[in-house]
Amino acid sequence: MSENILICPKCSCELKKEGGSLICKSRHTYDCAASGYVNLNTKLTLSGDSPEMVNARSRFLDLGYYEGFARAIIRTLDDFKPQKVIDAGCGEGYYSNMIAHELAYTALYGFDLSKSAVNKASKRIKASGTDASFFVCGIFDLPIKDNSADAVVSLFAPLAYEEFHRVLKPGGRLVIGAAGKEHLYGLKRALYSEVYENNPEKVVCPEGFREISRENVKYDVIITGKEAIGDLFSMTPYYWKTSEAAASRLLTLDRLDTPLDFDIIVFERL
């Protein structure tokens, strides 16, 4: 990567690659893991998705059902040709890998609190032969220089608006991907006797940004196989609030018909 935008999470000095580590001028040192990621989380404890959750999501996404959404995100980014892209809440790297592969002119930095997810993302990118960098770190305190990124991507992740504003250049863009009102409606039909459309909070333009565009991407899929249906279920908030009886009924299915419904919102940093 040409211009380094990483800073030390302890002292905010620029981080530079020395051998197999990232080191700042204060000699704070962060070693690269065998898979290639770097742990820049300075907190004593880690959180984020467990290895089981990461593996389930990775298995499901690799089946390609969400590829239409991923390609819509790629088209959105390609419209303004960002050079430095931050994937804030990158998870296991499915979207990061596609972005880095399809938009080879980008330098992509992925951040997630889950060490298991970031390790998976690094292995995925290495196996694909694509270039991207991954870090264990929370998105509310990114180890990134002020005014240095061309784009921040936030897909089904928390929105740290103040931090995104700080790291984006003036004119940089925040690309948000979220569930639309009919997202996984078929899954909900299989779980509950009464089913309602999603009513997500409207994503309102935050202070310091202006809205560029809103797009809805919706298509129907047929998900086949008990494992795939179970993996999808484990990716959703319904996994945590559904009765055991309802979940058991779902997991007997070999086929699930459902719409996938996504909203893509783009804000420009003023």
Major sheet size, sense and barrel closure? 8 strands, mixed
Poorly predicted segments: none
Strand content: 25-35%
Query: What is the name of the CATH superfamily?
Result: Vaccinia Virus protein VP39
* Mean pLDDT reading: 94
Q: Would you state the CATH class?
A: Alpha Beta
So what's the overall shape? Answer: globular
Count of folded domains: 1
> How many distinct beta strands?
11
Percent range of helical residues:
25-40%
CATH topology: Rossmann fold
CATH architecture label name: 3-Layer(aba) Sandwich
Distance between the termini: 26 Å
Give the C-alpha Rg. 19 Å
What is the H-and-E element order? EEEEHHEHEHEEHEHEHHHE
| Side-by-side strand order of the widest sheet | 4-7-6-5-8-9-11-10
User: What would you call the structural class?
Assistant: alpha/beta
Number of helices: 9
Describe what you observe in this structure:
The protein is α/β, with parallel strands linked by helices. The chain has a single domain (16-269), classed as Rossmann fold. It contains nine helices and eleven strands. The strands form two sheets. It has an eight-stranded mixed sheet, with helices on both faces. Strands 1-2-3 form a three-stranded antiparallel sheet, with no helix packed on it. α5 links the parallel β8 (149-155) and β9. The mean pLDDT is 94.
